[in-house]
Structure formats: structure tokens, C-alpha cells
Design brief:
alpha+beta, six-stranded mixed beta sheet, Deoxyribonuclease I, Chain A, disordered N terminus, 31% helix, 2 domains
Amino acid sequence: MESKGPDERRPRIVTLKVISWNLLRLTGAGVEDVAAVIEQHRPDLLLLQEATEQLSALPARVGGCFFREPLNGRIYGLAVWSPHPLAPPYALPLPVSRVPGRVPPRVAQIVQLGEVTFANVHLSHGQFLNRRQLLHIANVLDGPAAVVGDYNAIGPIKLAGFEDIGPRQPTHSPNNTISLRLDRCMARGLRCSYAKVLARGRSDHHPIRLDLHVLPAVRGSDGTGTGHVRRLKLRDSVERWARAMSDAPNRIRVRQTFFETLDVKFRKAKRGVVQQQRPAPVGVLRQLSKEEAKAP
């Protein structure tokens, strides 16, 4: 990692090596496995999901700075390790499902390293819900940022202002039946020069490695950065999306009523055409024939 002088409170990071790994809680990768990955790849930032209390012994093995964020009601949580000093991360509550009996609320672990903000995530399995969680995270991140971790998302993801810069290979094979790309990285203001899926080890997820570079800030005519302008645009788009979602039931009812009315009119019109095309009764035909015969 390259940075400016030590007198700066937040040195500007030029390059940053990041690894993210879902450990599979008690039965998966342990402290020795994580330590081996650190010693082999020397990351500047290591983001962990399903990390148990046992991972708190990691600094005794490899040194560095370690923080763990337990999930309410779970034996595991989110964790971050770095060889560089870190300010204590904070937990960002994420949107939850209203369906009874679902898992406890999830959080994102927000980590600041240099001028880059990272969100370490283990998102919900619901495909609508995990997209809502991503929008919520994006709305609170300023400047260069990356959302990294286990997305539990299937299919493409669109997030205004962010790009999917992670590796495209599958990272998870449940019961060795199907391969899915669940572990991802979406970033803003960052360029990825190297993205790779690493060996899975004892977990059911492969770690992903990313070499990230901070892009030069876009400057306005007055010399100020435009990062806040991008954030306002993102916030506006999120607010528009939220209003559209809240009004969706009304719009659905209006459309349903409209199509029902259109269907009734169509059926009536169709019956009228059929009646016009239906042959006249025999008595009517005979009467018409008599009138035609009397005609001069």
C-alpha cells in the first residue's frame, strides 16, 4: 500500500489488496486457515463473513488490527483484519424482511482505510431484500467506496454509481450441485487491476482477491470535487425508487381495474360482432324473399 506522509490523518491510498472470505462458521475455515491466506497473499484488508469468536485469536498469530461484529442471535458475525491501523468500524443496520420467523436483522460492517470506505456484507437470501440492502448501503457511503462480501444474490445487479469489479467465476457450490457467484465486489471511484477466485480450503465459499486503485477525483471548474454531487444524485434516485415502491400497490390496482374494464369492453364488442355475423332466422329470410319477389 502506497500512501503520503505519516502526518496526514487519512493517507491517500494508491493501491490496495483486498481479500473477502465467507468462512462457514464452526465447521469451515479456522484461525490457522485465515492466517495461511494472510501469509501467502499479504492483503492490506481482509474481510470475513461467518466469523466466530475463535477468530479473535488471529492477531496473536499474525499481528495486525482485528475487529469483529457479532450478529444478534447468531454464533457468527462479520470481521475485518488489516496490517495497518484501523479506526473502529461501525455496524450499519440493514433493511429486514417483515415475514415472521426470518433470520435476525443483518448489518454491514463499515470500515475506513485511507480515503476508501468499505462495507463488509453478508446479505439476506431474498433476492428483492438483498437488493434493498445494497441500495441502503450505497446511500450512506461517501467518496471512493466498495461493497464487498457474500451477497447471496443470483443474477446481475444494478447499483447507481457502482460497478461490479469482482471476479466472474463461481465462488460457492452448495452440496456440489450448482455453482453460484455469490461473493462479489461493487465499487465506486475504484479500478480493479486484478481479480481472482482463490482456493476454497475448508469453507464452502472461495475467497476472492482484488487489487484496487483509487481513481483520480473529478474536479469542477472551481477546483472542488464532485463526489458529493454524485452522492446527491444517488440519493435522489433512491428516494424516487422508494416512492415508486410505496405507491406500487395503488398503481397495480389501477392497472388491474383498467385491464378489467378493457376486457369487459372487448368482450362486449366481440359479442356484437358475432351477433352481426350470425345467420338470420329462416322466417326472416322467407319474408325478405317475398318482399324481393313483389318488388318491380
